Amino acid sequence: MSNIDSHPPGSFCWLELATSDQTAAKSFYSSLFGWTPSDSPLGPDAVYTIFKLEGRDAAAAYTMFPEQRAMGIPPNWMLYISVANADDTAKCAKAAGGAVLKDAFDVGESGRMAVLQDPTGAVFSVWQPNKHPGIGIAHVDGTLCWADLSTPDPKRAGKFYSDLFGWQLMTEEEDPEHDYLHIKSGEHFIGGIPPAARRQPGVPPHWLAYFQVDDVDATKPSEADGRESLPAADEHGGCRKNVGHRRPARRSVLDLQVRAPLLAS
Question: Which of 68, 88, 87 minimizes the C-alpha distance to 78?
Answer without folding.
Answer: 68
